[in-house]
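Same chain as my last thread, 352 residues:
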Amino acid sequence: MSDRRTPSARSRYRTGDSELDRRLAEVLATAGIDRNDDLLFEMLVSVVRMGREYRDRGDLKLANSALKELRYSASVFEPYRDIRKASIFGSARTRVDDPGYRAARDFGRAIAEQGWMVITGGGPGIMEAGIEGAGVDAAFGVNIMLPFEQEAAAILANDPKLVNYRYFFTRKLAFMKESSAFALLPGGFGTLDEAFELFTLMQTGRSPICPVVLIEPEGSSYWQSWMRFTETELAGRSLISPDDMSFVKVCEHVDEAVDEVCHFYRRYHSMRFVGRRLVLRLLDRPDDDELAELNAEFGDMVTGGPIAVVDTSESELEDDDVPDLPRIGFGFDRRSYARLRHLIDRINDNAA
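reply #2:
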């Protein structure tokens, strides 16, 4: 392989020692790695630079453990990439006879019947209920190892789709990265932490927009109370935009929650930034009349050109990122993510 094609030659991120860079590239070649070798080269560079710069062994332990957890987690999910997954959040302390347990179990069963899989924290309570409903074959557990309270649910304890994490941040990343929808039931600090982080990531564009349903079990006012607080103390004080509430829907019935999730993907498939352009991949191509209507309604968030049908980009082709689907693209202001949720809803509402 010529120097012009080596990952070290393609990368600006290097060790500062050209001979060492060459040897790191050789390590990848010797290992038979020729796909994404530029990114893997930079990971090796980071290891070298950390070894030179870090004196605190604790920092290295954290980075080492996090990388191993992310690698193993990705390997567990890899065979199931083409199947959509819904994460179910809620309390580990919910009892079997609680309406919340029944609601989580019913949601897991109903979404699995739609061809989805579920991801839970892998522990007892709401998590076990979701696994029970979906069935072990359609369930993942991303379990956090704690000195108290949470152990893996017995129903999933020996399943290869159970991943144990030491760190909350790697576990949260797995939830966010692998899920196409989120269902939340009443829970404690952990559930509220997951809810607010999820909304923050979507509001700021750090996570793709996806459906979020807050399932209110029979006799509960948990999510109505949460909505009142959020609308009064956050939106009412202009700490968030009133439009931000469109990221979430309170559902009193499981069927309503499943319909909300499935409707979101009725026509919309996924999104990706290609350079400065936001690309939405759809299940069918919009006609000129529909594009005109979308531009008229959502032109306020469009910059640098109208919403239009676009070709599959070279980067999407290179990544084999659903290249055969029709797509629309436009310059997006990267602020109006709640409005973007409305645009996706409109596209789905227009489905034949």
